Amino acid sequence: DTEKSAIFIIFGGSGDLAHRKLYPSLFRLYKTGLLKDHFAVIGTARRPWSDDYFRGTVITSLEESFDDDKKIMEEFAKHFFYQSHDVNDSEHYIALKNLAAKLDDQFEAGHNRVYYMAIAPRFFGTVAEHLNSEGLKTKDGYNRLVIEKPFGRDLDSACELNGNISKAFPEDDIYRIDHYLGKEMIQDIPNIRANNPKFEAALNNKYVSNIQVTLAESLGVEDRGGYYETAGVLRDMVQNHIMQIIGSIASDDPEAKDAGVIHKNKCDLFASLKNLTPEEVDKNFVRGQYDTDELGDEKAYRQEDKVAEDSQIETFTAGKVEFNSKRWSGVPFYVRSGKRMPNKASRIDIVFNEKVSELGIKPNTVLTLLIERTNDHSILINGIDYKESGQDFIKFPEEPEFTKACEAYESLIIDILSGNRVHFTLWDELRSTWKYIDSIRERWDSQKADFPNYISGTMGPDSAEMLLERDGNSWIWD
Ligand code: NAD
């Protein structure tokens, strides 16, 4: 790839996301040469830091993940500048504009701007509006707005946020991050489907018994109790990441290359989500909140810092999602996510039925796509590496792309710099998924939950097992 030029303006440049994810990813791009001479990074936050102090924090964060020569880190850090900034102060945007213009001249950055919102979500709209009204957007380069999660907390707030940012930026310049879309396996699913016609022919309600998506964490909320109390796992993981994972496996036409077509197929899939009545919510979704562990050593959720003693926030959910589409009607998509589960795991299990033998796939085969690779396995067939499974419906002409091991944020930043929006979420997708999630949330908010209801280090409440048993199914990962 050739060198890219841009001025990055990172709102929340002193924060955790910026230091833990963004700066290390930019550094990797620097080492590959994608970023070289023609870029600069302006970090902004309220604190009055000097450039030197800011560069020091950047280097410290790099030292945690890299053992490169400090000289390279220092060279890289010379591209970093700090501007103290309050999101509500118009004057500060003028200062930012002038600094960006100056650095653009200095580094010959082609008038390109990447505005990255690594800041509390309540500021996203304000910042976007000011960028527009104070004239930060350049005339001859590009101006791309990057929005972190969460994108709203329900359909109404997401609509309001979207209204605010779309007054300032056209949809084509908005990059809404869902970092699961930056993960290699998720990006590779369309290729796997497109390159394996037998597998693709089996991906529908004639041959699939059910599909299971699990995003399990072994940790609790740690120091993010304050944020978690406003969210819960349904908003934090299901509305965005799990839905997008389903989008990658279940939307039509994996061969499509055009971003517009790919997004349309995903929008169509989400538009066919079978929305739930309150009674269906009770039947199809279960919720849980972790208690201490078997030994009583770990904190229960309600004992965590900044968490209410009687918190009704769920740290676990399992549910049955269905679609009203020709391809998928009748196939349950069982989804599950939780904290304090036995292991960290991110996986998709596709359970085929008996009829699949018509296509030359052994009846009742289970295909597992590991989103987070373990012991170098990425794809399992009936629990063993696909290459040793004795079945040939998944093959690769050459080593699959998912061995390239690139960090999600790195890959997403490359896309932003290249103007490739395939791996970002569109407003239409969010509208459908929020509508779906809201019906569950509203039902739950109207009923008191009997929390805590699962022991830390377990697979969640028993109701999660019963959800599948009732349909004659069971979780593949248990
Ligand atoms: P953080 O609290 O560590 O950082 C927030 C930043 O905003 C700081 O730099 C702070 O100085 C700045 N800030 C706060 N008030 C300001 C104001 N009035 N004017 C200007 N700057 C102000 O938060 P974070 O964890 O880095 O998260 C940032 C965003 O990224 C949030 O939207 C969060 O939801 C999202 N996110 C974070 C993570 C993560 O791993 N940390 C993961 C996914 C998404």
UniProtKB/TrEMBL annotation:
Listed GO MF terms: glucose-6-phosphate dehydrogenase activity; NADP binding
Coiled coil regions, renumbered to chain: none
InterPro entries membership: G6P_DH, G6P_DH_AS, G6P_DH_C, G6P_DH_NAD-bd, NAD(P)-bd_dom_sf
Pathway where it operates: Carbohydrate degradation; pentose phosphate pathway; D-ribulose 5-phosphate from D-glucose 6-phosphate (oxidative stage): step 1/3
Residues the record lists as binding NADP(+): R46, D86, V87, K149
Residue span, Glucose-6-phosphate dehydrogenase NAD-binding domain: 9-187
UniProt-listed Pfam families: G6PD_C (PF02781), G6PD_N (PF00479)
Any one of the GO CC terms: cytosol
Its EC number(s): 1.1.1.49
Active site: H241
Span of domain Glucose-6-phosphate dehydrogenase C-terminal: 192-475
Alphabetically ordered keywords of this record: Carbohydrate metabolism, Glucose metabolism, NADP, Oxidoreductase
One BP term from GO: pentose-phosphate shunt, oxidative branch
Substrates-to-products reaction catalysed: D-glucose 6-phosphate + NADP(+) = 6-phospho-D-glucono-1,5-lactone + NADPH + H(+)
Sites where the protein binds substrate: H179, K183, E217, D236, K339, K344
UniProt xrefs under Gene3D superfamilies: Dihydrodipicolinate Reductase, domain 2 (3.30.360.10), NAD(P)-binding Rossmann-like Domain (3.40.50.720)
Membership in a protein family: Belongs to the glucose-6-phosphate dehydrogenase family.
Role this protein plays: Catalyzes the oxidation of glucose 6-phosphate to 6-phosphogluconolactone.
Record protein name field: Glucose-6-phosphate 1-dehydrogenase
Species in which this protein is naturally found: Companilactobacillus mindensis DSM 14500
Organism phylogeny: Bacteria, Bacillati, Bacillota, Bacilli, Lactobacillales
Gene: zwf
